[in-house]
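sorry for the late reply, my laptop died twice this morning and i had to redo everyting from scratch. anyway the thing you sent over, i finally got around to it. pasting the sequence first so we're on the same page, its 393 residues, then the predicted structure underneath. double check i copied it right bc i was rushing
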Amino acid sequence: MMTVLRSAALSTLTAGVLVSVSALSAAAFDTRAKAAYVLDQKTDTVLLEKNADAPLPPASMSKLMTLYIAFEALRDGRLTLDERLPVSEHAMSYKGSTMFLNTQDRVRVEDLLRGIIVLSGNDACVVIAEALSPDGTEAGFARYMTRRSREMGMENSTFSNSNGWPAIGHRMSVQDLAILAEKLIEDFPEYYPMFAETEFAFDGRAPSNTRNRNPLLRLDIGADGLKTGHTSEAGFGLVGSAKQGDRRVIFVLSGLGSTKARAEEAEAVVNWSFRQFAQKTIAKAGTPVANAEVWMGARTSVGLVPEQDLEILLPALNRNELKAEVVYTGPIRAPISKGDKLAELVFQPEGLPEMRLPLVAESDVAIGGYPVRVQTAASVLLKRFLNGPGSTQ
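ok and here's the structure:
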């Protein structure tokens, strides 16, 4: 039987246990982007979604997938930073943003990575792609990109090339780009600082292409990545991230009309995310939130506690109390071991998705002795007698 313990506010689930918190909706962000996705990383809270699952042309933002695969190869020892890779005629044939590579070059992997991250080099992507491709071709690498993206949970991404050059079927959703950005940050902290670099002058051969196009890196608002993109089909986009204090926000904007609009919208998203939401601790690890009824146990109830501090993101300017429920299937049959997941704390701040946080057993509960079993059996028989033949309890 599903049991729900309702509470008027988090501060009264168990007297004095949970802090009183605010829960009034923050003003929604009205973005000009055709598609947008904003994630608070630490609390895994989606602050904004707009056409988040739509497969769209990602332009150079899809270079992040090439980088992720390159970082995997470095981690696995299939590449080294000092290794020098040859440049094919195919790589040299790409126009747009490039490192101006030619077939006489053999380029260090580390320079190629910076060439992709800072200079958005289409040619650098192909050099990496051909080195790591299962069949030595960019097309083969693109097929691997698609397969690998599915393994990473990116369901709306299909790649036709390594660099985002306009091509039929080359698509990513903004949510997939956010998944990819989060994995780059979490899986490869040793390489992530490259994304904050504002300039890279490769060999002095491209003086007009030495500056990172990310408009946020010089604004002192905590921005430290990741990748811009632009084609006439895709418009102007940005996969960005910023960290202030203990909070990190990851965001993706796509389909903006100009570099100016991209810069303005990105800065506004960062400021909105940090100013309008605050991280709050609503329950401390090991502190009982409620009690669950126990069946056939040495005790009739067990405390429900969070395994770790429960931290959530809430609108910063709110003054209303946050209503919550503790939900579990019970009564819970003994024996119970300390740490068993038994229940969930369920609540939904206005304007944000429903949140479900796990609660576990505070302590062991052994099976009750003979008197307990007799008493339980008698209680069941009495309930059946009082409730009629169809009763099960």
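Residues 133 and 144 are 7 Å apart (CA to CA).
thats about all i looked at so far, will dig more tmrw
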